[in-house]
Amino acid sequence: MQATAAVVREAGGPFQLETVEVEDPRDDEVLVRIVAAGICHTDVAVRNQDVTLPLPMVLGHEGSGVVEAVGSGISHVAPGDHVVLSGDSCGHCRNCHGGRPSYCDDFVESNLTGLRRDGSSPLSQSGEPLRGRFVGQSSFATWSVAPGRSVIKVADDLPLELLGPLGCGLTTGVGTVLNALNPPAGSSIAVFGVGTVGLAAIMGARLSGCEKIIAVDPNASRLDIARDLGATHTIEPDAEDPVAAIRQITRGGADFSVECSGIPIAVRQAVDCLGRPGMCAQVGATPAGAEIAFSMDHIGFGRGIKGVVMGDSAAQTFVPYLAELYRSGRLPYDRFVQYYDFADINQAVHDSAVTGKVIKPILKMS
Predict the structure, then answer these.
(1) DSSP 24
(2) Do 201 and 260 form a contact (C-beta atoms < 8 A)?
(3) Is 229 exposed, middle or buried (0-12, 13-18, 19+ CB in 10 A)?
(4) What is the per-residue pLDDT across 91-144, written as a single tens digit (0 to 9) for each?
(5) Are residues 152 and 258 in the same domain?
(6) What is the pLDDT at residue 366?
(7) N or C: which end of the chain has fewer CB atoms below 10 A?
(8) Quick one: pLDDT band at residue 305, thresholds 50, 70, 90?
(9) Which of 75, 212, 210, 81 is nearest to 158 (CA)?
């Protein structure tokens, strides 16, 4: 069958809507009609080759849609089910068995090559393979052939076009707080960068019962949203020293921090603002090859930094949990979503990644 896909062919080039051929699903795969797909910072970073992956490729990794066909080995979803797509994993290694599939031994081969683990692709053009398995889905397309482990069933009475970001941005932000940091009620936390992941972390901190939730971002309008979603304090780093401000607010330093921007100076500040003991979760994608110096006098007093992928979450159970949080009104991320037609993908990228006026753009495939 044929599909329309947004293909990136060169570094910094546009997303080009092209016709592609789609294979039938294999025994362990699912054919999904994509209804909508969120645009994530990582998609733009790969397009720009700030994250260097092979091109051409079909990107997109926050897809939601309807199951159309399943392979003979698939039993957890059936045609007609509403699903969210997330990352792939092998299901056999120690981390997969331990409920931490984002640290799968085959994570790179399964998610970042744009190919199946055997080197093939479910997409092609004129008989030539086209990389179409980005983060288990390549959901910037009207159809996706995804591995079963990437396909997560969700309730069919929720707005399917809204749910795709649960598979990455919301899982990453909320999961980093709830799973990776697990702050006790009454603790303090600082969040550097309040785009989708940072705002999700703010909501996760509120769910955790944090007493002081501090949002740091140079964009005043994003800080306004952070306040609405649970931030108790906000800081514009261009106007004041965030480290000094956080130490004053918390009377010595934050118990926890989450760094979502990937900007090296912000990474350093997210560690420097910690009290003792204190832990920073590094989530933002730093520039390739970045090296950041920390004071060991500071680190030595019980402080630390840990990298976190996909919120230390097992998506098959965490995504439905997030969906129910949304249903109950405790995860109101629809407040910072804007929809675009699929044909307007380049405008959506411009509005989010260039001007910053949109936090979470979602493409509707209709």
Answers:
(1) P
(2) yes
(3) buried
(4) 999 999 999 999 999 999 999 999 999 999 999 999 999 999 999 999 999 999
(5) no
(6) 81
(7) C
(8) very high
(9) 81
- Which whole number is the average pLDDT over 338-361? 96
Q: Return the CATH number at 247.
A: 3.40.50.720
> Are 237 and 303 part of one and the same domain?
yes
Q: Is 293 helix (H, G, I), strand (E, B) or coil?
A: coil
**CA-based end-to-end distance of the chain:** 17
Q: What is the pLDDT of residue 316?
A: 96
d(CA 233, CA 215): 6
- The gap from C-alpha 321 to its chain's centroid, in whole angstroms, comes to 16
Structure tokens at 208: 């955790």
* Sheet containing 123-125: order of strands: 57-58, 2-8, 15-22, 123-125, 128-130
* Section 302-308 average pLDDT: 96
Q: Of 148, 144, 149, whose CA–CA distance to 24 is shortest?
A: 144
How many domains does the chain fold into?
A: 2
The rounded distance, in Å, linking the Cα atoms of 304 and 47 is 32
Q: How does DSSP assign 66-87, residue by residue?
A: EEEEE-TT--S--TT-EEEE--
185 within 8 A of 208, measured Cβ to Cβ: yes
pLDDT of 288 over the 90 cut? no
Residue of 145, 139, 121 whose CA lies nearest to 67: 145
Does the residue 321 lie in any domain?
A: no
